[in-house]
Design goal:
Shape: globular
Structural class: mainly alpha
Strand content: under 5%
Number of helices: 24
Number of strands: 0
C-alpha cells in the first residue's frame, strides 16, 4: 500500500472516530450543564476566529512555496521566518487588543475581554499549530495532524467538562486541563516536525529578499488570509456568546453536533474529487465535469436527505434519553428543521466551491467567502437585536446566508464552466423524503420512547427504499452487497 493510500485510510478512520466522540458526547454528556459547556465552546471558536489575524495566511504559503525553497535548501529558513512573523504578529495583535478598550469602552464588557487570559494564549498556540500543520502536510503526512486537529480539541472539551461536572473540580482546574491539551498539541507538532526533519532555526532574510520573493510570499498569504473568513460556525458561536449567553452557546453546539450528522456523506469528498476536477479542467472536458458534478451532488443530496429524514422523526424521542436538559433542546426543534434544510442545500451543490478554487478563478471563491462572513454577521445581528427568535434567528441567518452563498456559486459555475449540480432527480428525492417524514409523524406513538425512536426512522427508511425502488434515483443495490463491503477494506 502506498504512503498516500495508508495516510488517506488512517485519516478517514481518525476523522470518523473524532466525529463519533464529539457527537456522542454532545448528545449524552454535555447537556448536563449547558452553561459550562457553552463557556468551553465559546473559548475555542473565539480563538479560531481571531487566529487568521495573527497567521495572516502564512500557513498556506508554507505549502505553496515549499517545493521552491526545498530545491534551494531553504525549508528551515521559511519555517523559522514564518514562526517568527507569527510571533511578531501576535505581539501587535495583543497590543491592539489591549488598546481597543480606550477607543471602544464597551469592549471591556465583552466575553472575549473577560476571559482574555484563556483566549490570547490559545490564539498564539493555535497560530503556531497552523504553521506546523501546513508545513508537515508537505511530507504527505496528514494522520498525526488530524489527531491533533480533530481528536485533541474534542478530548479537551470532554476532559474539562468531566473534571468540572462529574469530578466536581473547580472551573480553574477544568480550564487548565482544556488549555493544557492545546499546549500538548503544540509540543506534539514541534516533536513530530523534528522527527520528520530536524528543526534548525534560521532567521536570515537574504534568501527572501532575493528577487523579491517576499512579495510573492506576502501576496499569496494575503489571499489565503482573505479566504479564512467564511467560518460561519465560529462566527455564530462568538456572537451567541456575546449577545445571548453561554447557555445558548452550549445548546447551539449540541444542536450543531446533531445536524452535522447530515454531512457525513461529505467527509473526504474534496480529497476524492480533486484529482478528477483537476483533470477535467485541464482537458477542458466540461461535459464530463458536468456529468460527474451532477452524479456526485445527487448522491450527497440523497444520502443527506435520508439522514435528515431520520433525524427529523427521531429527534423528539432522542431528547428523552438525554440528560436533564434534553427538554430544552426540544424547544429548539425548529432550529434542526431550518438549519438541517440549509445543510441539505449545501450538500446538493456538491463540490461547487472546489471547482472554482482549482481553476484560475480561485479569487472569486475568496470574494464569496467574504460575502458569506458578512451576511452571517449582518443577519445574526439583525435577528438578535430586532427579534425574539434567539437561536431560531441564528438558524434562519445561517440558512439564508449559506443558501445565497451556494446559489451565487451555482450561477458562476454555470456561466463560466457550463456545469451545474442540480438535476430533476433531486426533486423526486425531496418528494419521497417529505412523504416518508409525513407518514412517520402521523403514525401512532407507542408508550415507549425507545420503540418510537427505532420504529419511526425505520418507517422512513422503508418508505424511502420503496420510493427509490420504483423511481431508480439512487443505485442502493450497488452499496447493499458483500462485494462493496469487502472493497471498503481493500487498500490497493
Amino acid at each position: 500500500m502506498s504512503v498516500v493510500a495508508r495516510q488517506g485510510f488512517k485519516y478517514s478512520i481518525i476523522g470518523y472516530i473524532g466525529f463519533l466522540l464529539g457527537t456522542v458526547s454532545a448528545i449524552f454528556i454535555f447537556p448536563n450543564d449547558f452553561e459550562f459547556y457553552g463557556k468551553l465552546r465559546y473559548i475555542l471558536p473565539a480563538a479560531e476566529m481571531l487566529v487568521p489575524f495573527v497567521v495572516l495566511g502564512i500557513s498556506y504559503s508554507n505549502v505553496k512555496f515549499f517545493h521552491r525553497v526545498e530545491k534551494d535548501g531553504k525549508k528551515q529558513n521559511m519555517l523559522s521566518l514564518s514562526l517568527l512573523t507569527v510571533f511578531v504578529n501576535f505581539l501587535v495583535f495583543t497590543a491592539v487588543f489591549f488598546i481597543l478598550p480606550y477607543f471602544y469602552p464597551k469592549f471591556r464588557h465583552s466575553e472575549a475581554w473577560k476571559i482574555k487570559e484563556m483566549i490570547l494564549p490559545l490564539i498564539l498556540i493555535l497560530s503556531f499549530c497552523a504553521i506546523f500543520n501546513k508545513y508537515t502536510s508537505n511530507y504527505k503526512r496528514i494522520v498525526v495532524s488530524n489527531i491533533f486537529d480533530n481528536l485533541l480539541p474534542k478530548i479537551a472539551n470532554l476532559g474539562a467538562f468531566c473534571l468540572f461536572y462529574y469530578f466536581a473540580l473547580s472551573q480553574k482546574i477544568a480550564f487548565a486541563f482544556f488549555f493544557g491539551t492545546f499546549a500538548f498539541m503544540l509540543f506534539g507538532y514541534i516533536y513530530y516536525t523534528n522527527r520528520l526533519e530536524k528543526i534548525q532555526l534560521d532567521f536570515n532574510t537574504d534568501y527572501f529578499k532575493k528577487n523579491n520573493l517576499w512579495k510573492d510570499f506576502f501576496n499569496y498569504s494575503f489571499f489565503g488570509f482573505l479566504g479564512t473568513f467564511g467560518n460561519y460556525l465560529a462566527i455564530n458561536s462568538f456572537m451567541i456568546g456575546e449577545f445571548m449567553g453561554m447557555e445558548e452557546v452550549g445548546i447551539y453546539s449540541v444542536l450543531y453536533a446533531l445536524i452535522s450528522l447530515i454531512s457525513i456523506p461529505q467527509l473526504g469528498l474534496f480529497n476524492i474529487s480533486a484529482p478528477i476536477i483537476n483533470k477535467t479542467l485541464a482537458d477542458g472536458d466540461m461535459e464530463e465535469l458536468d456529468r460527474f458534478h451532477k452524479k456526485t451532488s445527487l448522491s450527497l443530496y440523497f444520502l443527506g436527505a435520508v439522514l435528515f429524514s431520520c433525524i427529523m422523526v427521531g429527534f423528539p424521542y432522542l431528547t428523552q434519553f438525554m440528560p436533564k436538559n434534553g427538554t430544552m433542546l426540544r424547544e429548539y426543534e425548529p432550529v434542526v428543521w431550518i438549519w438541517g434544510s440549509a445543510v441539505l442545500i449545501d450538500l446538493a451543490t456538491g463540490f461547487n466551491g472546489n471547482i472554482i478554487s482549482l481553476s484560475k478563478y480561485y479569487r472569486f471563491n475568496i470574494l464569496v467567502m467574504l460575502l458569506l462572513a458578512g451576511l452571517t454577521i449582518g443577519l445574526n445581528y439583525y435577528f438578535i437585536k430586532n427579534t425574539e427568535l434567539k437561536l431560531i434567528g441564528i438558524a434562519l441567518s445561517t440558512a439564508i446566508s449559506l443558501s445565497i452563498y451556494n446559489v451565487i456559486k451555482i450561477i458562476f459555475n454555470y456561466i463560466v464552466f457550463k456545469v451545474s449540480p442540480l438535476s430533476i432527480e433531486m426533486i423526486f428525492v425531496s418528494i419521497i423524503c417529505t412523504l416518508a417524514i409525513t407518514v412517520a409523524i402521523v403514525l401512532p406513538n407507542f408508550s415507549s420512547n425507545l420503540i418510537n425512536l427505532v420504529y419511526k426512522p425505520f418507517v422512513v427508511l422503508l418508505l424511502i427504499y420503496i420510493g427509490n425502488y420504483f423511481t431508480k434515483i439512487f443505485p442502493i443495490e450497488d452499496y447493499l452487497n458483500m462485494r462493496f463491503i469487502k472493497s471498503v477494506f481493500k487498500f490497493k
